[in-house]
Amino acid sequence: MDYELIKITIPLVGLAITVILWLATARESKDKATISSIDRIEQTLDNKIAAVGSRVTLLERDISSMPSHEDVVRIHERIDTMGGSLNSTNLLIGDLSGQFKQLCMSNQQVLGLLQQLIKNSKSN
Question: Looking at the predicted structure, is the pLDDT value of residue 124 above 70?
Answer without folding.
Answer: no
